[in-house]
Protein backbone atom coordinates (compact mmCIF):
# COMPACT_ATOMS: atom_id res chain seq x y z
CA UNK A 1 0.00 0.00 0.00
CA UNK A 2 1.27 3.47 -0.85
CA UNK A 3 0.94 6.37 1.55
CA UNK A 4 0.90 10.13 1.21
CA UNK A 5 3.69 12.09 2.84
CA UNK A 6 1.27 13.23 5.56
CA UNK A 7 0.96 9.68 6.84
CA UNK A 8 4.55 9.98 8.11
CA UNK A 9 3.83 13.08 10.23
CA UNK A 10 3.19 11.16 13.48
CA UNK A 11 6.48 9.31 13.04
CA UNK A 12 8.91 12.04 12.00
CA UNK A 13 7.16 15.26 13.03
CA UNK A 14 5.62 18.22 11.27
CA UNK A 15 8.82 20.17 10.51
CA UNK A 16 10.26 17.33 8.48
CA UNK A 17 7.06 16.90 6.46
CA UNK A 18 6.70 20.62 5.74
CA UNK A 19 10.33 20.83 4.63
CA UNK A 20 9.84 17.92 2.23
CA UNK A 21 6.69 19.48 0.79
CA UNK A 22 8.47 22.80 0.26
CA UNK A 23 11.36 21.13 -1.58
CA UNK A 24 9.00 19.01 -3.68
CA UNK A 25 7.06 22.10 -4.74
CA UNK A 26 10.23 23.37 -6.48
CA UNK A 27 10.37 20.17 -8.51
CA UNK A 28 6.72 19.65 -9.36
CA UNK A 29 6.34 17.71 -12.60
CA UNK A 30 10.00 16.85 -13.14
CA UNK A 31 10.69 13.41 -14.55
CA UNK A 32 13.07 11.21 -12.54
CA UNK A 33 13.84 7.80 -13.99
CA UNK A 34 15.53 5.04 -11.97
CA UNK A 35 17.17 2.01 -13.51
CA UNK A 36 18.60 -1.03 -11.75
CA UNK A 37 18.98 -4.75 -12.45
CA UNK A 38 16.08 -6.40 -10.61
CA UNK A 39 12.54 -5.66 -9.44
CA UNK A 40 12.78 -8.15 -6.60
CA UNK A 41 15.26 -9.33 -4.01
CA UNK A 42 17.93 -7.29 -2.33
CA UNK A 43 18.11 -3.85 -0.85
CA UNK A 44 18.03 -1.72 -4.01
CA UNK A 45 14.71 -3.15 -5.20
CA UNK A 46 13.40 -2.83 -1.65
CA UNK A 47 14.26 0.88 -1.60
CA UNK A 48 12.89 1.70 -5.04
CA UNK A 49 9.62 -0.09 -4.25
CA UNK A 50 8.99 2.47 -1.51
CA UNK A 51 10.80 5.56 -2.83
CA UNK A 52 9.19 5.79 -6.26
CA UNK A 53 5.51 5.84 -5.14
CA UNK A 54 6.17 8.42 -2.43
CA UNK A 55 8.05 10.69 -4.84
CA UNK A 56 5.11 10.41 -7.24
CA UNK A 57 2.83 11.34 -4.44
CA UNK A 58 4.84 14.51 -3.98
CA UNK A 59 4.34 15.54 -7.62
CA UNK A 60 7.61 14.17 -9.03
CA UNK A 61 7.06 12.03 -12.12
CA UNK A 62 9.24 9.22 -10.77
CA UNK A 63 9.57 5.96 -12.69
CA UNK A 64 11.57 2.76 -12.33
CA UNK A 65 12.67 0.16 -14.85
CA UNK A 66 15.15 -2.71 -14.95
CA UNK A 67 17.63 -3.67 -17.65
CA UNK A 68 17.38 -6.91 -19.56
CA UNK A 69 19.96 -9.63 -19.04
CA UNK A 70 20.35 -13.35 -19.59
CA UNK A 71 21.94 -15.81 -17.16
CA UNK A 72 25.34 -15.14 -18.72
CA UNK A 73 25.01 -11.42 -17.99
CA UNK A 74 24.03 -11.96 -14.36
CA UNK A 75 26.85 -14.49 -13.86
CA UNK A 76 29.23 -11.79 -15.05
CA UNK A 77 27.71 -8.99 -12.99
CA UNK A 78 27.74 -11.17 -9.86
CA UNK A 79 31.46 -11.82 -10.44
CA UNK A 80 31.90 -8.06 -10.93
CA UNK A 81 30.01 -7.42 -7.69
CA UNK A 82 32.30 -9.75 -5.74
CA UNK A 83 35.44 -8.36 -7.37
CA UNK A 84 34.40 -4.75 -6.73
CA UNK A 85 33.98 -5.69 -3.08
CA UNK A 86 37.65 -6.67 -3.17
CA UNK A 87 37.26 -10.45 -3.45
CA UNK A 88 39.95 -12.10 -5.58
CA UNK A 89 38.27 -13.04 -8.88
CA UNK A 90 39.47 -13.92 -12.34
CA UNK A 91 37.94 -11.18 -14.49
CA UNK A 92 38.39 -12.02 -18.17
CA UNK A 93 38.00 -10.25 -21.50
CA UNK A 94 35.13 -12.65 -22.29
CA UNK A 95 33.29 -11.20 -19.27
CA UNK A 96 33.79 -7.64 -20.51
CA UNK A 97 32.50 -8.74 -23.91
CA UNK A 98 29.32 -10.18 -22.40
CA UNK A 99 28.81 -7.01 -20.35
CA UNK A 100 29.30 -4.85 -23.46
CA UNK A 101 26.92 -6.98 -25.51
CA UNK A 102 24.09 -6.56 -22.97
CA UNK A 103 24.89 -2.87 -22.58
CA UNK A 104 24.42 -2.45 -26.35
CA UNK A 105 21.16 -4.40 -26.20
CA UNK A 106 19.83 -2.26 -23.37
CA UNK A 107 20.93 0.93 -25.08
CA UNK A 108 18.94 -0.13 -28.14
CA UNK A 109 15.86 -0.77 -25.98
CA UNK A 110 16.16 2.42 -23.93
CA UNK A 111 13.72 5.14 -24.90
CA UNK A 112 12.65 6.61 -21.60
CA UNK A 113 12.78 10.39 -21.67
CA UNK A 114 13.39 12.11 -18.33
CA UNK A 115 14.98 15.13 -16.69
CA UNK A 116 16.94 13.12 -14.12
CA UNK A 117 18.31 9.62 -14.51
CA UNK A 118 19.41 7.72 -11.43
CA UNK A 119 21.31 4.63 -12.54
CA UNK A 120 21.82 2.13 -9.73
CA UNK A 121 24.99 0.05 -9.40
CA UNK A 122 27.36 -1.29 -12.07
CA UNK A 123 24.96 -3.49 -14.08
CA UNK A 124 23.19 -0.66 -15.97
CA UNK A 125 26.10 1.84 -15.77
CA UNK A 126 26.61 1.72 -19.56
CA UNK A 127 23.25 3.42 -20.13
CA UNK A 128 25.13 6.70 -19.79
CA UNK A 129 25.93 6.29 -23.50
CA UNK A 130 22.30 7.24 -24.11
CA UNK A 131 22.70 10.66 -22.64
CA UNK A 132 23.41 12.30 -26.01
CA UNK A 133 19.83 11.47 -27.06
CA UNK A 134 18.35 13.40 -24.15
CA UNK A 135 19.83 16.89 -24.10
CA UNK A 136 19.47 18.84 -20.84
CA UNK A 137 19.04 15.67 -18.81
CA UNK A 138 21.02 15.06 -15.60
CA UNK A 139 22.63 11.70 -14.89
CA UNK A 140 23.69 10.33 -11.51
CA UNK A 141 25.36 6.97 -10.87
CA UNK A 142 24.06 5.61 -7.59
CA UNK A 143 26.59 3.12 -6.27
CA UNK A 144 25.26 1.01 -3.40
CA UNK A 145 28.41 -1.04 -2.92
CA UNK A 146 31.86 -0.47 -1.51
CA UNK A 147 34.25 0.25 -4.39
CA UNK A 148 37.08 1.62 -2.27
CA UNK A 149 39.42 -1.32 -2.99
CA UNK A 150 38.18 -2.90 -6.21
CA UNK A 151 39.73 -5.25 -8.73
CA UNK A 152 41.89 -2.78 -10.71
CA UNK A 153 41.23 -3.92 -14.27
CA UNK A 154 37.50 -4.15 -13.60
CA UNK A 155 37.39 -0.71 -12.02
CA UNK A 156 39.23 0.78 -15.02
CA UNK A 157 36.57 -0.75 -17.27
CA UNK A 158 33.70 0.54 -15.16
CA UNK A 159 35.29 3.94 -14.71
CA UNK A 160 34.99 4.45 -18.47
CA UNK A 161 31.24 4.77 -17.84
CA UNK A 162 31.29 6.37 -14.40
CA UNK A 163 33.38 9.38 -15.40
CA UNK A 164 30.73 10.40 -17.91
CA UNK A 165 28.04 10.94 -15.25
CA UNK A 166 27.22 14.37 -13.83
CA UNK A 167 27.43 13.03 -10.31
CA UNK A 168 27.81 9.93 -8.21
CA UNK A 169 26.02 8.92 -5.03
CA UNK A 170 27.57 6.72 -2.36
CA UNK A 171 26.21 5.21 0.85
CA UNK A 172 29.20 5.95 3.03
CA UNK A 173 32.28 8.14 2.49
CA UNK A 174 34.59 5.14 2.91
CA UNK A 175 32.88 3.26 0.05
CA UNK A 176 34.04 5.82 -2.46
CA UNK A 177 37.22 6.82 -4.21
CA UNK A 178 38.49 9.80 -6.22
CA UNK A 179 36.25 10.05 -9.26
CA UNK A 180 36.64 13.38 -10.99
CA UNK A 181 32.89 13.98 -10.79
CA UNK A 182 30.86 15.41 -7.89
CA UNK A 183 29.97 12.90 -5.20
CA UNK A 184 26.94 12.91 -2.94
CA UNK A 185 26.34 10.92 0.17
CA UNK A 186 22.90 9.33 0.61
CA UNK A 187 22.28 6.49 3.03
CA UNK A 188 19.49 4.03 2.28
CA UNK A 189 16.32 3.91 4.31
CA UNK A 190 13.40 1.77 5.32
CA UNK A 191 9.74 2.62 5.12
CA UNK A 192 8.16 2.46 8.59
CA UNK A 193 4.69 2.09 7.07
CA UNK A 194 5.54 -0.77 4.71
CA UNK A 195 4.32 -4.29 5.49
CA UNK A 196 7.96 -5.18 6.14
CA UNK A 197 8.24 -2.69 9.00
CA UNK A 198 4.82 -1.67 10.28
CA UNK A 199 3.73 -2.62 13.79
CA UNK A 200 2.28 -6.11 14.11
CA UNK A 201 0.17 -7.53 16.91
CA UNK A 202 1.46 -10.48 18.88
CA UNK A 203 -1.17 -12.82 17.39
CA UNK A 204 0.13 -12.20 13.87
CA UNK A 205 3.72 -12.75 14.98
CA UNK A 206 2.78 -15.99 16.71
CA UNK A 207 0.88 -17.33 13.71
CA UNK A 208 3.83 -16.64 11.37
CA UNK A 209 6.20 -18.41 13.76
CA UNK A 210 3.90 -21.40 13.94
CA UNK A 211 3.57 -21.49 10.16
CA UNK A 212 7.34 -21.98 9.92
CA UNK A 213 7.58 -24.41 12.82
CA UNK A 214 9.35 -21.98 15.14
CA UNK A 215 8.40 -22.48 18.80
CA UNK A 216 7.14 -19.06 19.97
CA UNK A 217 7.77 -19.97 23.60
CA UNK A 218 11.49 -20.55 23.17
CA UNK A 219 14.06 -17.94 22.15
CA UNK A 220 15.40 -17.72 18.63
CA UNK A 221 17.80 -15.56 16.68
CA UNK A 222 17.30 -14.76 13.02
CA UNK A 223 19.24 -13.62 9.99
CA UNK A 224 17.16 -12.58 6.98
CA UNK A 225 19.38 -12.41 3.91
CA UNK A 226 19.86 -13.55 0.39
CA UNK A 227 21.76 -16.86 0.44
CA UNK A 228 25.09 -15.28 -0.36
CA UNK A 229 28.50 -16.27 1.04
CA UNK A 230 29.29 -12.65 1.88
CA UNK A 231 26.34 -12.75 4.32
CA UNK A 232 28.10 -15.67 6.07
CA UNK A 233 25.07 -17.88 6.80
CA UNK A 234 27.39 -20.78 7.65
CA UNK A 235 29.17 -18.59 10.21
CA UNK A 236 25.77 -17.89 11.78
CA UNK A 237 25.09 -21.64 12.08
CA UNK A 238 28.52 -22.14 13.69
CA UNK A 239 27.87 -19.36 16.20
CA UNK A 240 24.43 -20.82 16.99
CA UNK A 241 26.06 -24.24 17.60
CA UNK A 242 28.49 -22.76 20.12
CA UNK A 243 25.69 -21.04 22.02
CA UNK A 244 23.46 -24.09 21.81
CA UNK A 245 25.97 -26.16 23.76
CA UNK A 246 24.89 -24.39 26.95
CA UNK A 247 21.58 -22.73 26.10
CA UNK A 248 18.15 -23.36 24.68
CA UNK A 249 18.06 -21.58 21.33
CA UNK A 250 16.50 -21.78 17.88
CA UNK A 251 17.90 -20.29 14.69
CA UNK A 252 15.93 -18.99 11.72
CA UNK A 253 17.83 -18.32 8.50
CA UNK A 254 15.38 -16.81 6.08
CA UNK A 255 16.16 -15.77 2.56
CA UNK A 256 15.19 -15.87 -1.03
CA UNK A 257 16.98 -15.30 -4.26
CA UNK A 258 17.30 -12.09 -6.22
CA UNK A 259 16.81 -12.47 -9.95
CA UNK A 260 20.24 -10.92 -10.52
CA UNK A 261 21.97 -13.34 -8.11
CA UNK A 262 22.74 -16.72 -9.71
CA UNK A 263 24.71 -18.12 -6.73
CA UNK A 264 21.72 -18.40 -4.38
CA UNK A 265 20.80 -22.05 -5.02
CA UNK A 266 24.36 -23.31 -4.47
CA UNK A 267 24.75 -21.35 -1.23
CA UNK A 268 21.35 -22.55 0.01
CA UNK A 269 22.46 -26.17 -0.52
CA UNK A 270 25.66 -25.49 1.47
CA UNK A 271 23.62 -23.95 4.28
CA UNK A 272 21.21 -26.90 4.40
CA UNK A 273 24.11 -29.27 4.63
CA UNK A 274 25.74 -27.23 7.41
CA UNK A 275 22.49 -27.29 9.39
CA UNK A 276 22.69 -31.08 9.30
CA UNK A 277 19.00 -31.64 9.94
CA UNK A 278 18.99 -29.89 13.36
CA UNK A 279 15.24 -29.45 14.08
CA UNK A 280 15.94 -26.15 15.87
CA UNK A 281 17.48 -24.63 12.76
CA UNK A 282 14.86 -23.42 10.30
CA UNK A 283 16.13 -22.59 6.85
CA UNK A 284 13.34 -20.78 5.09
CA UNK A 285 13.22 -20.14 1.38
CA UNK A 286 10.89 -17.22 1.15
CA UNK A 287 9.13 -16.19 -2.04
CA UNK A 288 9.49 -12.53 -3.04
CA UNK A 289 7.28 -10.08 -1.16
CA UNK A 290 7.05 -12.18 2.03
CA UNK A 291 7.05 -8.89 3.87
CA UNK A 292 4.69 -9.61 6.74
CA UNK A 293 6.45 -12.91 7.40
CA UNK A 294 9.87 -11.23 7.50
CA UNK A 295 8.49 -8.49 9.71
CA UNK A 296 7.12 -11.09 12.15
CA UNK A 297 10.31 -13.18 12.12
CA UNK A 298 12.41 -10.11 12.95
CA UNK A 299 9.99 -8.84 15.62
CA UNK A 300 9.69 -12.15 17.41
CA UNK A 301 13.43 -12.76 17.61
CA UNK A 302 15.46 -12.36 20.79
CA UNK A 303 17.95 -10.57 18.54
CA UNK A 304 18.58 -10.01 14.86
CA UNK A 305 21.86 -11.20 13.37
CA UNK A 306 23.60 -9.87 10.26
CA UNK A 307 26.97 -11.53 10.34
CA UNK A 308 28.12 -10.24 6.95
CA UNK A 309 31.76 -10.46 5.88
CA UNK A 310 31.21 -7.60 3.41
CA UNK A 311 28.16 -5.42 3.29
CA UNK A 312 26.74 -2.44 1.49
CA UNK A 313 24.44 -0.74 3.94
CA UNK A 314 22.65 -3.71 5.44
CA UNK A 315 18.99 -2.83 5.42
CA UNK A 316 18.12 -5.90 7.44
CA UNK A 317 20.02 -4.25 10.28
CA UNK A 318 17.87 -1.12 9.96
CA UNK A 319 14.78 -3.31 9.89
CA UNK A 320 15.79 -5.14 13.06
CA UNK A 321 16.64 -1.93 14.92
CA UNK A 322 13.38 -0.25 13.93
CA UNK A 323 11.54 -3.22 15.42
CA UNK A 324 13.23 -2.60 18.73
CA UNK A 325 15.53 -5.59 18.47
CA UNK A 326 19.20 -5.51 19.34
CA UNK A 327 21.35 -6.40 16.34
CA UNK A 328 24.56 -8.42 16.28
CA UNK A 329 26.34 -7.65 13.03
CA UNK A 330 29.66 -8.17 11.28
CA UNK A 331 31.85 -5.08 11.68
CA UNK A 332 31.70 -4.18 7.99
CA UNK A 333 30.18 -1.55 5.71
CA UNK A 334 27.00 0.19 6.80
CA UNK A 335 26.54 -2.22 9.70
CA UNK A 336 29.23 -0.25 11.55
CA UNK A 337 27.19 2.93 11.23
CA UNK A 338 24.03 1.30 12.54
CA UNK A 339 25.23 -1.10 15.20
CA UNK A 340 26.79 1.07 17.84
CA UNK A 341 28.66 -1.32 20.06
CA UNK A 342 26.95 -1.71 23.40
CA UNK A 343 24.28 0.85 22.48
CA UNK A 344 22.16 -0.63 19.66
CA UNK A 345 23.78 -4.07 19.59
CA UNK A 346 27.23 -5.53 19.06
CA UNK A 347 29.60 -5.58 16.12
CA UNK A 348 31.54 -8.84 15.84
CA UNK A 349 34.63 -10.07 14.00
CA UNK A 350 34.40 -13.85 14.36
CA UNK A 351 32.12 -16.82 14.94
CA UNK A 352 33.29 -16.96 18.56
CA UNK A 353 32.64 -13.25 19.07
CA UNK A 354 29.19 -13.61 17.59
CA UNK A 355 28.41 -16.57 19.86
CA UNK A 356 29.63 -14.70 22.94
CA UNK A 357 27.38 -11.70 22.21
CA UNK A 358 24.35 -13.89 21.47
CA UNK A 359 24.83 -15.68 24.76
CA UNK A 360 25.26 -12.42 26.67
CA UNK A 361 22.01 -10.97 25.31
CA UNK A 362 20.16 -14.24 25.84
CA UNK A 363 21.04 -14.00 29.51
CA UNK A 364 20.26 -10.27 29.67
CA UNK A 365 16.99 -9.72 27.83
CA UNK A 366 16.38 -6.34 29.50
CA UNK A 367 19.68 -5.10 28.10
CA UNK A 368 18.59 -6.34 24.66
CA UNK A 369 15.29 -4.47 24.97
CA UNK A 370 17.09 -1.27 25.97
CA UNK A 371 19.43 -1.59 23.00
CA UNK A 372 16.40 -2.17 20.79
CA UNK A 373 14.84 1.07 22.02
CA UNK A 374 18.07 2.94 21.27
CA UNK A 375 18.13 1.34 17.82
CA UNK A 376 14.61 2.46 17.03
CA UNK A 377 15.49 6.07 17.84
CA UNK A 378 18.69 5.87 15.79
CA UNK A 379 16.64 4.71 12.80
CA UNK A 380 13.95 7.35 13.37
CA UNK A 381 16.57 10.08 13.22
CA UNK A 382 18.68 8.83 10.33
CA UNK A 383 17.34 5.96 8.29
CA UNK A 384 13.67 6.45 7.45
CA UNK A 385 12.23 6.94 3.98
CA UNK A 386 11.35 10.60 4.61
CA UNK A 387 15.02 11.54 5.07
CA UNK A 388 15.85 9.62 1.91
CA UNK A 389 13.18 11.45 -0.06
CA UNK A 390 14.55 14.77 1.18
CA UNK A 391 18.05 13.80 0.04
CA UNK A 392 16.84 13.00 -3.48
CA UNK A 393 14.87 16.24 -3.73
CA UNK A 394 17.96 18.19 -2.65
CA UNK A 395 20.11 16.22 -5.09
CA UNK A 396 17.89 17.13 -8.01
CA UNK A 397 17.84 20.77 -6.97
CA UNK A 398 21.61 20.75 -6.60
CA UNK A 399 22.11 19.17 -10.03
CA UNK A 400 19.94 21.78 -11.69
CA UNK A 401 21.71 25.13 -11.88
CA UNK A 402 18.52 27.19 -12.38
CA UNK A 403 16.72 25.62 -9.44
CA UNK A 404 19.76 26.07 -7.27
CA UNK A 405 19.89 29.79 -7.90
CA UNK A 406 16.24 29.90 -6.91
CA UNK A 407 17.34 28.95 -3.42
CA UNK A 408 20.23 31.37 -3.06
CA UNK A 409 19.69 34.24 -0.68
N1 LIG B 1 14.89 -9.58 1.84
C1 LIG B 1 13.67 -10.09 1.48
N2 LIG B 1 13.56 -11.43 1.29
C2 LIG B 1 14.61 -12.27 1.47
C3 LIG B 1 15.87 -11.74 1.81
C4 LIG B 1 15.99 -10.38 2.00
O1 LIG B 1 12.69 -9.36 1.34
O2 LIG B 1 14.43 -13.46 1.29
C5 LIG B 1 15.00 -8.13 2.03
C6 LIG B 1 15.46 -7.72 3.40
O3 LIG B 1 14.36 -7.69 4.31
C7 LIG B 1 16.04 -6.34 3.11
C8 LIG B 1 16.64 -6.53 1.73
O4 LIG B 1 15.96 -7.63 1.14
O5 LIG B 1 15.02 -5.37 3.04
C9 LIG B 1 18.13 -6.84 1.80
O6 LIG B 1 18.84 -5.68 1.90
P1 LIG B 1 20.31 -5.64 2.51
O7 LIG B 1 20.80 -4.24 2.38
O8 LIG B 1 20.29 -6.22 3.89
O9 LIG B 1 21.15 -6.66 1.60
P2 LIG B 1 21.38 -6.85 0.02
O10 LIG B 1 20.55 -8.03 -0.36
O11 LIG B 1 21.00 -5.58 -0.67
O12 LIG B 1 22.85 -7.16 -0.08
Are there runs of 5+ residues with pLDDT below 50, and where?
A: none
Strand percentage, roughly?
Answer: 5-15%
What is the distance, rounded to the nearest whole angstrom, between the alpha carbons of the first and last residues?
Answer: 40 Å
Secondary structural class: alpha/beta
Quick one: overall form? globular
Give the names of the bound compounds.
uridine-5'-diphosphate
Give helix % range. Answer: 40-55%
CATH architecture of the largest domain: 3-Layer(aba) Sandwich
Radius of gyration: 21 Å
As an assembly, this protein is single chain
| Strand order across the largest sheet | 2-1-3-4-5-6
Number of helices: 16
CATH topology value of the largest domain: Rossmann fold
CATH-defined superfamily of the largest domain: Glycogen Phosphorylase B
The counted number of beta strands is 12
The CATH class designation of the largest domain is Alpha Beta
Count of spatially separate domains: 2
Biggest β-sheet: count, sense, barrel? Answer: 6 strands, parallel
Note down, in words, how this protein is organized.
A 6-stranded parallel sheet has the order 2-1-3-4-5-6, covered by helices on one side. Strands 9-8-7-10-11-12 form a 6-stranded parallel sheet, with helices on both faces. It is of the alpha/beta class and 409 residues long. The chain has 2 domains: 5-189 and 384-408, Glycogen Phosphorylase B (Rossmann fold, 3-Layer(aba) Sandwich), CATH 3.40.50.2000; 202-382, 3-Layer(aba) Sandwich (Rossmann fold), CATH 3.40.50.2000. Helix 4 (71-84) packs across helix 5 (93-109) and helix 11 packs across helix 14. The mean pLDDT is 95. The protein has 16 helices and 12 strands. The longest helix is centred in the last third of the chain and has 18 residues, at 365-382. The two termini are 40 Å apart. Bound molecules: uridine-5'-diphosphate (UDP). The site of uridine-5'-diphosphate has 17 residues, from helix 3, strand 8 and helix 11.
